[in-house]
Specification:
It is built from 13 helices and 13 strands. The chain is α/β, with parallel strands linked by helices. The protein has 3 domains: 2-167 and 246-291, NAD(P)-binding Rossmann-like Domain (Rossmann fold, 3-Layer(aba) Sandwich); 174-242, Arc Repressor Mutant, subunit A (Orthogonal Bundle); 307-392, Roll (Structural Genomics Hypothetical 15.5 Kd Protein In mrcA-pckA Intergenic Region, Chain A). The strands form 2 sheets. The protein has an 8-stranded mixed β-sheet with strand order 3-2-1-4-5-6-7-8, with helices on both faces. Strands 9-13-12-10-11 form a 5-stranded mixed β-sheet. Helix 7 (184-200) crosses helix 8 (210-226) and helix 8 crosses helix 9 (234-242). The protein is globular. Bound molecules: zinc ion. Zinc ion is lined by residues 157-158, 160-161, 295-296, 299, 301-303. Residues 157-158, 160-161, 295-296, 299, 301-303 line the site of zinc ion (ZN). Belongs to the ubiquitin-activating E1 family. UBA3 subfamily. Its EC number is 6.2.1.64.
């Protein structure tokens, strides 16, 4: 019975990223589909609020790492399956680690982590070595909605290519927050993004601390009143700050099943796999839609080298930073900029460099920059370096 199927299922080593609502389902489905060598990474410990849907965990497991507990449960339940857990961040591991897998499946709720793994797998591709191409299956859910996609790094569109498909409400332009709030969310963002650092200095905002949320609520309510905005509540404040997405167990089950089927098809080549994006919409009746998400030419991860950026000679340099933060497909929060000709133009950190480059913010683009000059942009949330090619209006 040594078919291609059993060979591939025995040989293939799969990595699951995330052992939460989606991850628990994915690991279980993989084990029940015949995958025998499964690895799982998760940086979280089990919280009592997870128990309603993350069914590999029980009350006695609260406080334990999710990855370890999930691995033990599945190994006990499905004999012959080896699940190797890692309790930590995906960023702790290097390319050698990722190179050992045939397939990576993400069941994450974090955009930053998805961007990181997608960019890492794209960078790992060596055209001389077909083994270096690791298919990435990415699942995600949001309430009754979800999506599953297959990314063949450098061949199909990558995660970064589709950043503009992210829910737009979650990113508010900083100038709207600072100057012209219209929504209760704007007031809450103002309190957390601008007022907290201004009044609290280096003290870190703890999103799980009720006192911190109450502090933000109070400030946001004052600001809302000044601008005649209604609807700032404690739960909305918590929701905006923590970016809470409602989790529904059955949506996770649907998306995890879709991801696992694609993994099975890729591992066994038994049937064609998803090309390349499936959307599941359960919030307005039931609707699924599959399409080929195309590569974005300007994608900083898998596309061209530099991105054209048009500025006015009479703009203050500060405006370049503001514009960068508002580009939906970049999702930059605190950009630092430099160029080969001028060195650091503006750095967010360390404090001495921030202070010494701060005067540039007031300078005019016409005197600070040159036509065709290439600027390097770095940001904590960017898993790569972005290059901007300056064009004057
Ligand atoms: Zn891309």
């Amino acid at each position: 019975m040594c078919s291609v199927k059993s060979f591939l299922l025995d040989q293939s080593k799969v990595l699951v990223i995330g052992a939460g609502g989606l991850g628990c389902e994915i690991i279980t489905n993989l084990a029940l589909s015949g995958f025998r060598d499964i690895h799982v990474i998760d940086m979280d410990t089990i919280d009592v609020s997870n128990l309603n849907r993350q069914f590999l965990f029980r009350e006695k497991d609260v406080g334990q790492p999710k990855a370890t507990t999930a691995a033990e449960f599945v190994m006990k339940r499905v004999p012959g399956v080896k699940v190797t857990p890692y309790f930590g961040k995906i960023q702790d591991k290097d390319e050698d680690y990722y190179m050992q897998f045939n397939l990576v499946i993400c069941g994450l709720d974090s955009v930053d982590a998805r961007r990181w793994i997608s960019a890492t797998l794209v960078n790992m591709v060596d055209p001389e070595n077909p083994e270096s191409l690791k298919p990435l299956i990415d699942g995600g859910t949001e309430g009754f909605k979800g999506q599953a996609r297959v990314i063949l790094p450098t061949i199909t569109s990558c995660y970064e290519c589709s950043l503009d498909m992210l829910n737009k409400q979650t990113v508010y332009p900083i100038c709207t927050i600072a100057n012209t709030p219209r929504l209760p969310e704007h007031c809450i963002e103002w309190a957390s993004v601008l007022e907290w650092p201004r009044l609290m200095g280096d003290k870190k905002l703890d999103k799980d601390d009720p006192d911190h949320i109450s502090w933000l609520l109070e400030r946001a309510q004052t600001r809302a009143k000044e601008h005649n905005i209604e609807g700032v509540t404690y739960s909305l404040t918590q929701g905006v700050v923590k970016n809470i997405i409602p989790a529904i167990a059955s949506t996770n089950a649907i998306i995890a099943a879709a991801c696992t089927q694609e993994a099975f098809k890729i591992a066994t080549t038994c049937n064609p796999f998803l090309n390349n994006y499936m959307m599941y919409t359960g919030n307005e009746g039931v609707y699924t839609y599959t399409f080929e998400h195309e590569k974005r030419e300007e994608c900083p991860v898998c596309g061209g080298e530099s991105r054209e950026f048009v500025v006015g000679k009479d703009w203050k340099f500060e405006r370049v930073l503001e514009m960068l933060r508002e580009i939906q497909d970049l999702q930059i929060k605190r950009p630092s900029l430099s160029s080969a000709r001028s060195g650091p133009l503006y750095y967010q950190a360390p404090p001495q460099l921030e202070e010494s480059t701060r005067p540039n913010l007031e300078r005019l683009c016409g005197e600070l920059l040159e036509e065709e000059e290439e600027l390097t942009v770095t940001d904590a949330s960017l898993p790569f370096t972005l290059t901007l090619r300056i064009k004057f209006e």
